[in-house]
Write a structure and sequence with these properties.
Elements: E1 4-7, H1 14-21, H2 36-47, E2 52-59, E3 62-70, E4 87-93, H3 104-117, E5 124-127, H4 134-142, E6 146-152, E7 157-164, H5 165-172
Helix pairs in contact: 1-2
Protein name: Lysine N-acyltransferase MbtK
InterPro entries: Acyl_CoA_acyltransferase, Acyltransferase_MbtK/IucB-like
Pathway: Siderophore biosynthesis; mycobactin biosynthesis
Length: about 180
Amino acid sequence: MTFTFRPLDPLKDAELLHTWVTHPKAAFWMMQDAKLEDVERAYMEIAADEHHHALLGLKDGEPAFLMEKYDPAHRELAGLYEARPGDVGMHFLTPPTDRPVHGFTKSVITAVMTYLFEDPATARVVVEPDVRNKAVHALNEAVGFVPEREIDKPEKRALLSFCTREQFMAATGVSA
């Protein structure tokens, strides 16, 4: 599967995002009760933040998933671990579907990681999913993430995990 990326437009894309982030499948996104205005506001804040970026992943030109990248030294993980130069934080969300495609989510995380490692400044990708999110732990492991430890964030207990370019390439065979 081939994906492209474009910056998220907080106003234009809010309605679509709202259906994604409030769906029961997106429980770990923690926006279940969000109103449309809440989604617009949250993504307007990201759009205005130099340390946090939201992108839509497109398949055949149509929105297929959400990806966020952030600087973990300044957002999400600031003060919770020792950030290194070249660390990039990442979140991704695949939307609910009535017609699941086998391997789609693994293709998405592989595309996200490839995209992040296309930047030569990216040395390591950092994630902090909820410890209860077993499905994403398995996906993370499949693309080379190695869990380091559990950490307490204000909103959840998270599994801090890292993936270097070399670990990603070894796990996936994708040269980044």
